[in-house]
What does this fold into?
Amino acid sequence: MFPFIKIFFSLAPPPRRNEDNFPILNHLKESYELWHGFLGRLPRATRYTLGAKIDNLFTHAISIALTAKYTRQVEKITKLKQISEYLDYLKYFLTILWEIKGIDNKKFAELASKLDFIGKMIGGLIRYLEQK
It folds into this structure.
């Protein structure tokens, strides 16, 4: 029926996962994907206020991590500290969301543990880069 569709799909390579040599960025992306799945299930009153705030913090942290991936060592430390600051904001606003019962215990624990792990990775990388 539409032969050009068959040709297009036969020429396009399959999509790849965006794995690279900056694991902080990968873990942030995975955490955001988890959060994005929760966002649509938030109560309407919090989805467009606190949910949107958390979503913006995630995307800002990811954009800074993407920038940090390509910066020199001195600038990378500054960027990593900014990401750490955004993680602190994220943890705080997620805690508020959990306290007002916008997110259940299981989802909160899953996100909080991922963010805590990312924070430990960032702290370790900052210490390593400062010693160099």
